[in-house]
Amino acid sequence: MGEVIAAIALGVGAGMLAGLFGVGGGILFVPTLTLILGLTQVEAEATSLLAIIPVALVGSWRNHTRGTVRWRDAALIGLFSIGTGIAGAAIANAAADRGLRIAFAGLLVLTAGQLIWRCRRRPSMEGRPEL
Questions:
Q1: Could you report the per-residue pLDDT of 75-118, keeping only the tens digit for each?
Q2: DSSP string computed for 89-119
Q3: In this structure, what DSSP letter does residue 36 have?
Q4: Less Cβ crowding at N or C end of the chain, within 10 Å?
């Protein structure tokens, strides 16, 4: 029971931080699942991907009700996601856990660099009217 409560608390915290910083939740979920809950890299990545399904469904529905979904593009992305998801799972299952951790660490470094780059390039909001 304690592990379930910890997982829920970690999910809520990581979700809030991901929304605050504008990054995908997996960037925070995967390290949290491996370091705190002790999952393997493959288990953590699979869990993170499964957890995004309800979020994607709710987000898609809300955007659909606002008329902001381009369904042709969404279908195309969805079709390509099937193939790349299968390929990614095959690579993850074939690779050593240590190799996956190193690759994911590299992704984290690239993401951090992107966040820094975006912050430096963002023009000042001073003097602009509030929406």
A1: 999 899 999 989 988 998 898 989 988 998 998 899 889 888 88
A2: HHHHHHS-HHHHHHHHHHHHHHHHHHHHHHH
A3: T
A4: C
Q: Which of 41, 55, 49 is nearest to 12 (CA)?
A: 55
Distance in angstroms (rounded) separating the CA atoms of residues 24 and 52: 10
Whole-structure pTM value: 0.69
> In the chain, where are the structural domains located?
2-69+96-121
Average of per-residue pLDDT across 115-124? 78
Three-state DSSP at 124 gives coil
Return the pLDDT at 37: 87
Nearest to 10 by CA among 22, 38, 21, 42: 38
